[in-house]
Amino acid sequence: MAAVRQYSAGTDFISATKMNYFHYFLKQLTGWTMHPHIGVPAKQATRIADMGTQTAIWAIDVAEDPKLQADVHGFDVNSKFFPPAAWLPSNVTLHSQDILSSFPEPLLGTFDVVHFRLFIMLDEEKIRSMVKNAIELLKPGGFVQWIEHDKTSLRPITVSENQDTSSVEALIEMEKHPFPNYNHAWVNSIAPAMSAEGLDVLVEERIQTRKSLLTQMHEMHMLALIDVPPGLSEAIDTFKEKHFSTVAEDCAKGVSSVDSFLTVIARKPM
């Protein structure tokens, strides 16, 4: 899975743009940054861990929410996307930390909310490791929020009948099988892993991309493809050679793919 690790590391400027664009897309799609089921009293001090913070865009957004009194800590194994510390809000702290490894003792049991988002490619072992670390970080009664792109629901959509969807169907097939042994249904393991580790799953919901946001979703698919360097994935290279130009133009003609996002909210018992 070396190719997956390299893809996840990204290619700097385009990767950062994609991450930030995805944040605002999800906020517009869902209407929230922190799920309303998470009971955080207004103006009560709330300590939040953002796992795999990347550009820290989610951490900054939550930290600047006037309805919250948040102390946000972002964790990522790779700090290359971190903004300069001097440009961060005073209530955001970023840490170079592998979220699959044990966390320092002073952090354990100190967080009210642990947030995961858009890991795209995980196996069940990594999911369990991340959930276990979240439990270690949480106070009793604390919440886990996890949102992922759900590729199991990908399908073509057109504005009229008889439009050619062959390139979009090729995109969907490639999205589901970008690398050997990639399991596009891995997101279905998130809630069971939380339950197996003793968390109470409160919400497991899918939100479909609505038509007004299909253009933005299409643009993010294109950005993601541009972000993958040649030679990393035979499936992606083949798709880009045969279909990229057509798919890039399809959306303006009313041909695209529609997909969903999975949100899981769980709580650590008191």
TrEMBL record:
<feature type="domain" description="Methyltransferase">
    <location>
        <begin position="48"/>
        <end position="142"/>
    </location>
</feature>
<dbReference type="Pfam" id="PF13649">
    <property type="entry name" value="Methyltransf_25"/>
</dbReference>
<dbReference type="InterPro" id="IPR041698">
    <property type="entry name" value="Methyltransf_25"/>
</dbReference>
<protein>
    <recommendedName>
        <fullName>Methyltransferase domain-containing protein</fullName>
    </recommendedName>
</protein>
<dbReference type="InterPro" id="IPR029063">
    <property type="entry name" value="SAM-dependent_MTases_sf"/>
</dbReference>
